Amino acid sequence: MGTEKGSRTVAEAIKDIEVEKIRGPGDASSAKLATFWEKQPVVIHLLRRFGCQLCRGHAVEMAKILPQLEANNVRVVGIGLEKFGLEEFEEKKFWKSELYIDNGKKIHNALALTKVGWMGTFMMLFANKNVKEAEKKTRDTPGNLQGDGRQLGATFVIAKGGEMLLDYRQKDFGDQPSNAALLEALGLDSTQAKEEASKDAPVCTNST
Question: Which of 58, 41, 40 is nearest to 49 (CA)?
Fold first, then answer.
């Protein structure tokens, strides 16, 4: 995970990139990224793969704080890297706010986001503890193996005007920022998010 507070580097690097609109305000079929933080703070979540069980599960998890974010005038934007699997993703309503497609992975290329090799993919799926824990948490979420599954994503929290509040880049398939971390980056109350997270945390049953 990387967190770079006060930096404008990400905003500067991606501000002129246009993404195709699937669901969002206005009549235009595309949007320039700079417009997302022009008038208000924004959470930008780069979805790895629409069919990914872990990605879908995290989208559902993020939806828990969507009312709080919207009530505080925070824009929430999801961006996929391809349209493959979009129809089922939309049909099952995993993501409940604005949604766009970065055709050609322009954001990923501009920020040099990691694409995992085949051996790394194998190790993550079968030997990575973090991925295994994420799979347990999303075991009730349906998924498939279709699409570009080796590209890692990221989540950015950007203040109005472009200041970077949170730069979170995935280290593995199960790596995602907590809802509390997103809220805290924006200076919002994270008490409820932490309480909900603690309910899902593993409980040690060993007696001493």
Answer: 58
Mean pLDDT score across all residues of the chain: 83
Number of other residues whose CB lies within 10 A of the CB of residue 109? 11
pLDDT in tens, 168-204: 998 887 788 999 999 999 999 999 999 988 876 543 3
The total number of structural domains in the chain stands at 1
> Does residue 208 lie in a domain region?
no
Residues with Cβ within 8 Å of 30's Cβ and at least 6 positions away in sequence, in order, are 18, 19, 20, 21
Residue recorded with tokens 């509040």: 165
Coil, strand, or helix at residue 119? helix
Classified as helix, coil or strand, 76 is strand
Residues 6+ apart with CB under 8 A from 114: 151, 152, 169, 170
Question: Rounded to 5 degrees, what angle do the CA atoms 129, 134, 137 make?
Answer: 130
Q: Are 156 and 44 in contact (CB under 8 A)?
A: yes
**Cα 72 from chain centre:** 19
Domain extent, residue 119, equals 9-185
Whether the CB-CB separation of 190 and 184 falls below 8 Å is answered with: yes
Amino acid sitting at position 174: G
pLDDT digit string, tens, across residues 122-150: 565 555 566 556 556 656 655 556 666 67
Q: What is the pLDDT of residues 51-80, one digit of tens each?
A: 878 888 889 999 999 999 999 999 999 999
